Amino acid sequence: MITFDKTQGCFQLEGDGFTYLLGVSPNGDLHHLHWGKPLSTAALKKLLGEWKKRAVETEHHVSREFQRREFPDFGHNDLRTPAFQLEHADGYRISEFLYDSFQILPGKPDFGPGPSSRAEEADQAQTLKIILKDKLHKLELDLYYTLYPQRNILVRRTILRNRGSRALSILKLASASLDLPPAPWRLVRFPGRWAKERQMKEAALQEGTLRLESRRGISSHEMNPFALVTPGEADEERGEVYGFALATSGNWLIEAELFRDQTLRINAGLNDFNFKWSLAPGKAFVSPECVMAYSASGFSGLSFNLHRFVRERVVGGFWQSRPRPMLLNNWEATYFKFNHDKLLQIARAGKEAGLELFVLDDGWFGRRDDDTTSLGDWFVDKRKLPKGLRGLSDDIHGLGLKFGLWIEPEMVSPKSLLYQKHPDWCLHAPGRRRRMARSQLVLDMSRPEVRDYLFGTIGKALEEARVDYVKWDMNRSLSEVGNEILTPNRQGELYFRYLMGVYDLMARLNQRFPKVLFEGCSGGGARFDLGVLHYHPQIWTSDNTDGLDRIFIQYATSFAYPPLVMGAHISSVPNHITHRSMSLKWRALVAMSGNFGVEADITKWKPSERKELADYIRLYKEIRPIIQFGDFYRLENPHHSNRASWIFVSPDQKEALLFMFQVTPPRKGEKQTGIKLKGLKANQTYEIKELGLKASGRKLMEDGWLPKSFKHPKGSYHCELFHFKANN
Ligand code: DGJ
What is the CATH number of the domain that holds 479? Predict the structure, then answer.
């Protein structure tokens, strides 16, 4: 529910578990008054009384730095980090945007191209639009707040409109910005690198400005565009938690500025690094979205809501609520070395094991025998596949499997027909060397003719091969980000134009192939974000398929993203990256904790291993609805405990799947503690018949449970899956 109290000059946005309060000061500044637990009438009155006093004083005597502001402009006496910065036609960078008017809209407006969380029915969401104006330059700033009350989520974005007669430059424009009250603020971030994405790190903030960001043109391995802040210590159950997830897949920025008075300013949106956008008269610039989530009950509460939000409002289309097929991918099985018969042999073994989809990864096109050639030449390599893609696809379909294909649309190899024909189609600057990574250059996705070519050639391949699934890869950061067509004053627009071009191609291919399941990928998980999830309903989590490393990666990824969207595959041992050998059971339970698949030449496995694999596949098929569409709770943190464990609960709470992994061996004499389950119905009795276990949900959640096999685990890497069922 969104309301405006005219006498107080304040906006109130009420989620089921939070209140967000904004005030318009007497001179028209927008102030942030509260985001947190719902306020009683008395508390609200007190808060407004104090604010009124402060707001008047500030205007007459003291600096705006004494105010907690909402979307602060630049150029006055608040010298904290601004939410946006403009360069006007006269060269001045001073802006003054004051409150003008507001609208309360049902549902969510259409913001045009680019990712956008959905609200199909007007009662699913409500949107507040606050209009600020800079009268001197005739500029308008529209701040949008879409409230998803049941999920305790606010989705924000900003539109800057030039209603004046001269062009200006946008140097920075956040999607969301607010000042949180004084507290011993802590921040959780998700940094990483290739094969080690999203490692959770938590620390107290110190005075100064912390920039979490990507400058790589992709959301990056190095830092995920998601962060949490907590006003003091928080854990899975306790403490207030504020989450910020950006629905953008390029250069992003989350700034956290802890000020001298311990207030915390958060700005989140596009990165201002190397950004400059020229806004002509009559034009508007629309920022990407920032999804802001609140929980008064620790990390669990926040993830619970974010997971449902991602599944229901971010992921869309045909696959939104359909069980995802269990796939077999040939990458780790063959790399570039395969032919029709070899693929068919692997696929046949996959079918026998119970898998449902065969994915042909990199190497099927041009003359691609290694990673130095052919990107851009999306034509089948008849040396490897003499019957063509269609011949292979027919044979795969003939086995009763679906057929999937790997592509990397945004790239071109200098050794390719495409590059010979169009050397100017890659990102480049005249006179500058074109730096390669993985022997490839990046196509300039801002150019419509490049996108048309890709749409045409890739579309044709997908159509001819009757493809059911596509893995969209992207294997390098952007460099030499230049474009000879853009005018000199527009070079700073290229990162964002590139990204919008990528989204455009994704949207066009989704539209042309509405039933094809797309999986995002970027050298593993370098583009794991809400922007990609708008187009691709699942993402490859990491190239690292090592069972132990994956525990940490999937654990941290689950803070924002539901297991449904996390590609998780069993591969052969020793692992191709870590050379470690985890048991098949361990690898299977890790893969079952996400969107399950296999990535191995299982024709080389022993018959006993293939049988064991088939058993896991059968089991996953049974439990798939709970894993993919149930609720997920982390129970034990592998960073702080010698176990990792988590639980999936069916939407009707009648079944629960407890996964436990002994990540480090217990020390001698160390007492193993029980584990408190979550998400069950307190007054329901649950059983595990094979173990003779019967207990109420309350007992399992309050007293906890220690499975016998974990009392004295043998060996280091003991793991189990326990299936609880309600007994009526
Ligand atoms: C990177 C991906 O993450 C891998 O799964 C694989 O598709 C390779 N690229 C292929 O080049």
Answer: 3.20.20.70
Domain hosting 551: range is 327-629
Distance, CA of 382 to CA of 471 (rounded, Å): 21
In sequence order, what DSSP letters do the residues of 366-389 get, joined into one string? TT-SSTTB-TT--SB-TTT-TTHH
Specify whether 418 is located in the same domain as 306: no
Confidence of residue 712 (pLDDT cuts 50, 70, 90): confident
> How high is the pLDDT of residue 671?
82
Token pair, residue 339, equals: 């032919």
Q: Closest ligand 1 atom to the C-alpha of 522?
A: 3
444 catalytic, yes or no?
no
DSSP code for 282: T
Choose among 395, 390, 379: nearest CA to 342. 395
For ligand 1, atom 10, the nearest C-alpha belongs to 362
**Do residues 598 and 661 both lie within one domain?**
no
Look at residue 58 in the predicted model and tell me its pLDDT.
60
What is the per-residue pLDDT across 118-155, written as a single tens digit (0 to 9) for each? 998 888 999 999 999 999 999 999 999 999 999 999 99
Cβ atoms < 10 Å from Cβ of 274 = 13
The predicted model scores a pTM of 0.98
Q: Which of 288, 314, 340 represents a domain boundary (last residue)? A: 314
Q: Ligand 1 centroid vs 610 CA: distance in angstroms?
A: 24
Residue 446 contacts residue 501 (beta carbons within 8 Å) = yes
Domain boundary among the residues 290, 314, 338 is at: 314
Per the structure, the count of domains in the chain is 3
Q: Is the pLDDT of residue 59 over 80?
A: no
Closest atom of ligand 1 to CA, residue 361: 7
